[in-house]
Amino acid sequence: MKQKSYYLKIFLIIECVLLIFLGIFYFSAGRSLYERDSDGNVAEFNATNDVGELTQGATVEQIYTSQMDLLDSIGVMVSDYGKSINHGVEIQCENLSKGQILAKKTFSADEFEVNQYVYLNIADGVKVDRGDQIKISCTSDGEAGDAPTVLYNVENKLENPDVARDAQFTVNGNVVPGTMCIAVNGRNYVWTGPNYWKLVLLAVVLVAVLYGIECSRDKRGKTTVLFNMLFVLKKYKFLIKQLVKRDFKVRYKRSVLGVFWSFLNPLLMMIVQYVVFSQLFKSDIENYPVYLLSGTVIFNFFNEGVGQSLTSIVGNAPLITKVYLPKYIYPVTRVFSSGINLLMSLIPLIIAALITGEKITWAYLMLPYILICVMIFTMGFGMILAAAMTFFRDMQFLWGVLSMLWMYLTPLFYPISIVPKQVQGLVLNNPMYYFVNAFRTIILEGITPRPVVFCQCTVVALVMLGIGSLIFKKTQDKFIFYI
Q: With helix as H, strand as E and coil as C, how does 298-339 read?
């Protein structure tokens, strides 16, 4: 009976934690569970030519293929030639596939400047279907010497091949090579919103089934991950706390500034990197200081946690030979002590975000989950290197080189847009990119990452922990012969 009540208690705790997490996620995600910025958006791009004066009777048109569900705004680059003119431009957006005028507006001459985008905003968005042909028309009642112009690029800047399909740019009915300088913003419907609570029910049932399997194995005396972990935490709780405290205190032993380095270190690194890289990348990245600091904080924790785990077995050799303790606790506690540094380094990051105008939103509630995923990933990788270091002392030097290469493969101080397409796949499949990108989405955009991003972070973290645990378990019995 006592065992049954114990199983029930643990089950209820797990399910409650799961439901609380899923509830917080639903609350913080808001409308982003139902709608997301479309991949069919067209970003602003530079002009190379203009169509000449847009006088009365002249028409400039651009047709493109829609790849979104809701169209929010259309931007067109117009210019007044840097002189004072009295005539504006009328912009009309039409869905050719449905014969529907989506929006129309006349912009007065004082609403645009030299080579600037003006936006035709559509309140609450208008429904369009993917594959619809959308036409943007520009006309003016201007006269020669007193009329605006529309700009275009001689290259095809509709980089999305689906959007560029059947695209056509015409001036007075004549096809002109190139593309009108347009910017299209819209949203796509997301299936997770309407089906969210069905997914919650599925998650609850799945966890119940997995828990039932664990209970069944435990009753038969077989090894279980969950109950072994709970047993270790309960039995060695005091020792784990002492190891974490020791590792944290030793790091700042005889240091004048002590724990203050946890705040100062990420700021100093950001300042150095900002001075070095800002002139190269700041024009391409909005709020570059926070972009840089947010990436640095996450990667520094990973680098430090793995570096500390690397020597956890060799460095604790006297303790390992005298006191029995599950050996994986040594690298795990090193990651926990690095986690204290991580939490402290978040303070200057949040301060920098507030100073630079970023807003604290409900999406911040999901930051702990991203940080937990990073910590789990670090534990897994740290166990691999801790085992390798026991047999090959050269691993500490190899990790120095590998960590530097890993840092440059992670877009910490540069935008992903500058990476050549043939290399982008390597960067985008870099596990640390998932964590850094999700973290930045919350900090810089103030929104919750897409559910698929959380899935990616979870899978990557658990897979690495599984691989690390397996390698560590297979080799730990031989540690005693090499330490």
A: HHHHHHHHHHHHHCHHHHCHHHHCCCCCCCCHHHHHHHHHHH
**Sheet with 100-107, side-by-side order of all strands:** 100-107, 89-95, 133-139, 59-65, 168-171, 174-175
Q: Within 10 A of 238 (CB to CB), how many other CB atoms are there?
A: 8
Q: What would the pLDDT profile of 62-118 be if each residue is shown by its tens digit?
A: 999 999 999 999 999 998 877 778 888 999 999 999 999 999 999 888 877 777 899
Q: How far is CA 369 from CA 16, 38, 363, 414, 442, in A?
A: 16, 25, 11, 25, 12
SS3 94: strand
Residue type, 225: V
Render pLDDT for 322-363 as a digit per residue (tens, 0 to 9). Answer: 777 788 888 888 888 888 888 888 888 888 888 888 888 888
Residues 6 or more apart whose Cβ sits within 8 Å of residue 102:
71, 93, 94, 95, 122, 126, 128, 134
Token pair 């960067």 is found at 427
Looking at the DSSP bridge assignments, the partners of residue 71 are 126, 186
Residue type, 379: M
Quick check: 267 pLDDT over 70? no
What is the pTM (predicted TM-score) of this model? 0.78
- Which pLDDT score, from 0 to 100, does residue 439 have? 93
- Average pLDDT across the chain, whole number: 85
Residue with tokens 């840092």: 407
Quickly list DSSP for 211-245: HHHHHHHHHTT---HHHHHHHHHHHTHHHHHHHHH
CB atoms within 10 A of CB 151: 21
Q: Which residues partner with 77 through β-bridges?
A: 117
